[in-house]
Amino acid sequence: MSTLVKRALGGLLGVFVLLQFFQIDKTNPPITAGQDLLQLTSPPSDVAALIKSACYDCHAHTTAYPWYASIQPVGWWLKGHIEEGREHLNFSDWGSYPADKRAHKAEECAEEIREQEMPLKVYPITHPEARLSPEQRDRLAAWFEVLQASAGQDTPARLRKDMPMDKLPKAPQPVGADNPVE
Ligand code: HEC
Questions:
Q1: Is residue 111 in contact with ligand 1, taking CB distance under 6 Å?
Q2: Range of the structural domain that residue 65 is part of
Q3: CB-side exposure of 177: number of CA atoms within 13 Å?
Q4: The Haem-binding domain covers which part of the protein (predicted)?
Q5: What is the pLDDT of residues 55-70, one digit of tens each?
Q6: Is 108 among the domain residues?
Q7: 45, 68, 156, 161: most buried by Cβ count inside 10 Å?
């Protein structure tokens, strides 16, 4: 190897070592109780598991950072996806979205899943549990479509896995002959 090549390689290695001093912040933002999509809508368990493993690392406050997030510049690149993902759509803040925004985001979720745009294509390479079969895509998208149709409600009854109608909280009764004011 010529001296020039050796120097160039040494320089690159030096830069790489220096980059490692600039680690990303892996602290997850706090979780506000009662705002999480899965909590609010309690989907069937297979749907909940798919959303959690295929979307939550980038669209919620529960990111599990892989070991290679500690290698820069890989970590910066991951962090960019996570910040951008949360900015566009944050399942940890779902309950704070107004009804029309929920409906719109649910519609986009169904679209992105059907068009194979989400999860981001690079993600399943290192997250095999996020590789969606055509049947899984169909089921997930169909669930988001029902959510879109009922997104004005916090707990759309049609989406709940195990809540028979008679267990739903009763609407307040109008005051009248059967329900006198005490
Ligand atoms: C590896 C990170 C990552 C994963 C995993 C991921 N997303 Fe995303 N998502 C992003 C990023 C980054 C954007 C913004 C840029 C873009 O649209 O490509 C985005 C954008 C979106 C948008 C567009 C929102 C808007 O208002 O523009 C939707 C909808 C979405 N994702 C749904 C999902 C769903 C549903 C899943 C799971 C099936 C998922 N994403 C998984 C990173 C991710």
A1: no
A2: 26-153
A3: 0
A4: 13-148
A5: 999 999 999 999 999 9
A6: yes
A7: 156
